[in-house]
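Example (one chain per record):
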Amino acid sequence: QLQLVESGGGLVQPGGSLTLSCAASGFTLDRYAIGWFRQAPGKEREGVSCISNSVGNTYYADSVKGRFTASRDNAKNIVYLQMNSLKPEDTGVYFCAAEGELCITSMMRPEYARLWGSWGQGTQVTVSS
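Predicted structure:
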């Protein structure tokens, strides 16, 4: 199992921005598709974004399209999720996960989250005034 560590969460006002980081140890992230998921209390884990391996193709859920951007810094072995225009409904624990090479839309569905082989521990994002 690959080790992933998320960071960058926090409390932000509506309309604000945060950048989450997903760092890896012991392997190179650019070989894998990296998915970002979030889970609010009492809700399913929701796929919000994915960036494929070195090709860099991306996927965004409709709820975050135009506001969130996934990117890679291969030199630092980190994947980022830039989150702008945050809304209270973006609140939740955000996880990164690694599996395969390409982003597959169906793999972002809650019922297929279990197919992602490696997960980080999550970072809390709270959007509130």
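Caption: Residues 31 and 49 are 17 Å apart (CA to CA).
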